[in-house]
Amino acid sequence: MARGVAVLDVGTGTGTVASSALGRGASVTAVDAEPSMVALARGLLPGASVRIAVLPDLPFADATFDAAVANFVVNHVGDPLATLRSLGRVVRPGGRVAVTIWPHPPPVAQALWSDIFAAAGVVRPPDLPRLDPAHDFTRDVDGLSALLRQAGFADVSGSKVAWTHETDPESWWSGPASGIGATGAVLSAQDGPTRARVRAHFDRLTAVFAVVGGRLALPTAAILVCGWVARTSTV
Length: 235
Known about the structure:
Blueprint: E1 6-10, H1 16-23, E2 27-32, H2 35-44, E3 49-52, E4 65-71, H3 80-90, E5 91-101, H4 108-120, H5 141-150, E6 153-167, H6 169-177, H7 181-188, H8 192-206, E7 216-229
Parallel strand pairs: 1-2, 1-4, 2-3, 4-5
Antiparallel strand pairs: 5-7, 6-7
């Protein structure tokens, strides 16, 4: 990434991707729909412009950025295609967009939460939002690539990337315990005794992945797909 490249990080969360882009000399704008995440990212990203934005509505003029990233964001929006078209709108023709999602079937690290919930007898609340089947897509390289092409991107390519995520147990617990993401929404809806059972099974099932120092080594994977905004694009 060249110094001075204007990058938009959509759904920045704690700013991991934005921080990496800053470290490479990029000019970074980061957005998130969650005010608490925006406040956290502002403290962690003093060199970036951080603001609230709810997809697919991005408060930027057409062709504002040289590149955009959406790291594990398309998983959670109500209209993935509209979100990708919005990214294409704010990136200049000839610019690049990179998107990651969790695959399905889920890798070990993500499937672990399903196992924990099942062991604790968690019932998914019926009022949690679900993606309209008309907007859904297969959570693999072909499915996400097809969605980018449908959104108007050119020279789309992708791969499945696998790695071992190392973290400490409290960090792995704290996101869902704070209500973050779909897992957090399910956990937040449980009563006290159920949450206690979840924590007990969390401790039991994550212990299998403990390494020296008490940290966890969790096998995981992601789908990474990139595309270019066509120079004659109207997305």
